[in-house]
Amino acid sequence: MSEVQAVKDHDTVKLISFLLERQFSQQLADVWNIGLNLALRISDLLSIKFDDIHGDRLIIKESKTGKIANIKLNSKTLERIQRIRREHPNHIYLFQSYRNQRAKHIKAAPLSRRYICRALAMIGEELKIALGTHSMRKTRGYLLYQQTKDIGRVMKMLRHSAEETTLRYIGIEQDDIDKDFVELEI
Predict the structure, then answer these.
(1) CA dist 143 to 36, 67, 81, 129, Å?
(2) Catalytic residue among 80, 91, 134, 138, which?
(3) Going edge to edge, which strands form the sheet with 57-61?
(4) Given the residues 93, 142, 145, 169, the one annotated as active site
(5) pLDDT tens, 4-18?
(6) Three-state DSSP class for 61?
(7) pTM score, whole prediction
(8) Which among 24, 69, 76 has a CA at the least distance from the CA of 48?
(9) Is 41 a catalytic residue?
(10) I need a labelling partner for 117 at 20 to 30 A (CA). Which of 47, 81, 127, 137 fits?
């Protein structure tokens, strides 16, 4: 599997959302937009049930680490979740698969990771960006770092334990560090 990138500017983030909706569905655009705001691994993002949402908080146990993710939902994310809930009041999962919805004996399931991965890869190919399921998490981390320059905050948000892991994960390279030294003159 190839390394995917963080999207490093807001215009491209919006373009990806637009292309996902136009070429695939509103549901895939929602996965992208909500995924950006929650910075969860794709397995945790797709496993979100409406029961995991408590007012303006999402509380889930991360499958990879076993850590509890207690995330305050921003207003855009809450609005998207509420719209999805209104449109699909009988769904169990936030991103429930529509396949076989008429079959009563088939248990509800979320969208597949593979489907999301293929859609993001296709959009990435079109935009000449290495996009994948981790791109949402990496993008959130990168943009937070660019806004705050506080790697500790980014580490905490991503629930990483090592600074170098976080820097590598969000795609901070020597060129970015050099640029910071040149642009900040004291």
Answers:
(1) 10, 23, 22, 16
(2) 134
(3) 53-54, 57-61, 68-72
(4) 169
(5) 889 999 999 999 999
(6) strand
(7) 0.87
(8) 69
(9) yes
(10) 81
Q: Is 160 annotated as catalytic?
A: yes
Three-state DSSP class for residue 30: helix
Which of the residues 64, 86, 105, 107 is marked catalytic?
Answer: 64
Q: 77 is written with which tokens?
A: 């994310």
Kindly give, in sequence order, each residue whose CB lies less than 8 Å from that of residue 83, ignoring residues fewer than 6 positions away: none
- Residue 7: which residues within 8 A CB-CB, separation 6 or more? 13, 16, 129, 131, 135, 139, 142
Can 134 be counted among the known catalytic residues? yes
Please spell the DSSP secondary structure of 128-183, one letter per residue: T----TTHHHHHHHHHHHHHH--HHHHHHHHT-S-HHHHHHHHT--HHHHHHHHHH
Of 42, 41, 60, 40, nearest to 50 (Cα)? 60
C-beta of residue 155 within 8 angstroms of C-beta of residue 137: no
pLDDT tens digit sequence for 87-130 = 999 999 999 998 755 556 778 899 999 999 999 999 999 999 99
169 is catalytic: yes
The C-alpha atoms of residue 29 and residue 95 are separated, in whole angstroms, by: 11
pLDDT of residue 100: 56
Half-sphere exposure (Cβ direction) of 139: Cα atoms closer than 13 Å: 25
Q: Which of 80, 91, 137, 138 is labelled catalytic?
A: 137
What is the amino acid identity at position 14? K
| Both structure tokens of 15 | 């373009």
